[in-house]
Design goal:
The protein is mainly alpha-helical. Helices cover 63% and strands 4% of the residues. The protein contains twelve helices and three strands, in the order βββαααααααααααα. α5 packs antiparallel against α7. The longest helix has 34 residues.
């Protein structure tokens, strides 16, 4: 998703069709037609060679992202986690974005058939609106939880744990986007069901999505900066006898990856309209949120890696858990 602001390019090109002139304070501001149009724009029967490559890149990236979303969910569900680990936000973030990307991908593949059913198209656009908004709300919740953890690296009080219980988080994660969608339907019931089965641009209805997303992106960026500063401060206090170099590298990668997981990379959408390089970077990063979640919380987690090894040994050697140690060397 991307919201691009700036003056329109004077050179003719396929991006010209994506720009809609709006009047704000008597000055024209050009905004990308839809946040999802950066993907939808490449779906057509006749398109330039470069657009065909972008369409293929988008298709591959989204499919790869869906695979890693699924792997992350399987890991969260099947692996044993320490009592202090709270994966509620990560699980629901994966579920929301997995369903949103999958529904969007299927809708665009069968768009010609779905367009004939206007009611179905409107329902799909409403569901997409809810799922993507839910994904962004869960990104914000994850950012808040990370900020609390980094701020209190030594301990997290039981009082905070009770306040941020799983039920409380789920109410916030799904109620807020449901309220936004419900109010949007009540105010502009005809705002759903565009030609691409997304929200329409009439009466500024696109801001029912762009507005909340911009607010969350701003808050997450502020939280990310604070997390990075506090994490750097904590790393400088580590015992020098510990493998500080390796630990610092891992934590640096995790911090940079969190920039994508928390959705901060969606800010690139503001600047990608006039730059194909930024557009490609935007597409790759934001379709791989599931990949980064899988890397940070699964692959780079020592406890999870040990469980992976045990699982692989059972699969490769056909052993029961009690017999693994006895023939571990043979495997």
């Amino acid at each position: 998703m991307a919201v691009n602001m700036g003056h329109p390019s004077t050179e003719p090109g396929p991006s010209d069709d994506l720009l809609l002139p709006l009047i704000l304070d008597e000055e024209p501001i050009y905004v990308v037609k839809e946040i999802l149009d950066s993907w939808e724009g490449y779906i057509s029967e006749e398109r330039p060679w470069s657009d065909s490559l972008m369409y293929l890149l988008n298709l591959v990236c989204v499919i790869v992202g869906l695979v890693f979303f699924s792997l992350a969910l399987l890991t969260f569900a099947l692996c044993q986690w320490s009592p202090g680990v709270n994966n509620v936000a990560r699980i629901n973030l994966c579920v929301s974005l997995l369903l949103a990307h999958l529904l969007f991908l299927l809708t665009q593949q069968f768009l010609s058939l779905i367009r004939r059913q206007q009611v179905l198209c409107a329902v799909i656009s409403g569901v997409l609106h809810f799922l993507f908004l839910s994904g962004f709300v869960w990104m914000f919740i994850e950012a808040v939880l990370l900020y609390i953890c980094v701020k209190n690296l030594s301990h997290i009080s039981s009082k905070k744990t009770e306040v941020l219980s799983s039920g409380f988080l789920c109410v916030i994660g799904y109620t807020l986007p449901l309220v936004v969608v419900s109010v949007s339907v009540g105010l502009v019931p005809e705002g759903y069901g565009s030609e691409d089965c997304w929200i329409k641009q009439d009466k500024g209805f696109n801001w029912s999505f762009s507005g909340p997303v911009c607010v969350i992106l701003a808050l997450n960026t502020i939280l990310f900066i604070n997390i990075s500063i506090n994490l750097y401060s904590a790393l400088t206090k580590l015992n020098t006898e510990v493998s500080r170099m390796k630990q610092t590298k891992i934590m640096t990668f995790k911090t940079l990856a969190q920039f994508v997981v928390l959705g901060c990379s969606w800010i690139l959408g503001f600047f990608s309209n006039d730059s194909q390089i930024l557009e490609i970077l935007f597409l790759i990063l934001n379709s791989q949120q599931g990949t980064f979640i899988f890397l940070i919380y699964c692959v780079l987690n020592d406890e999870v890696r040990q469980q992976y090894r045990k699982c692989f040994r059972r699969l490769c050697c056909g052993l029961k858990p009690n017999n693994i140690k006895s023939v571990q060397k043979k495997c």
